[in-house]
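Practice problem: predict the structure.
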Amino acid sequence: MLTGKEALELQEKLIIIYKYISQERLMKKFYLDGLEDSLTSPKMDSNLLVKKLIQKEDAPEILKESILALEEIKARFNISEKATDFENIINQENLDYLCRRYGLKDCREIEKLDLSKLINAI
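Answer:
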């Protein structure tokens, strides 16, 4: 079982990953249609958990459900008032702030996010 603090940390890390995936898919869709092979992607070999997650076709849906579930856990621990709107949850924190909080220059460094301890707590 996760503590409130662990739920908050996991939720913030999942938000970073969600925003990374959203940005990458939007960029590919609008700007690089047909040029995907020429894109450079961050190396994810050092973090297979994150690599597997972002490669899933339904990754945004998985992340959305997880982020909403973690919001309920946080509310039970009085970490925050439960937000019901997904957009409000992911936009509560500035992405640059979240990245710096977890030692990332930007969301392209998601391979540096350590999720193993938190996933094991679940």
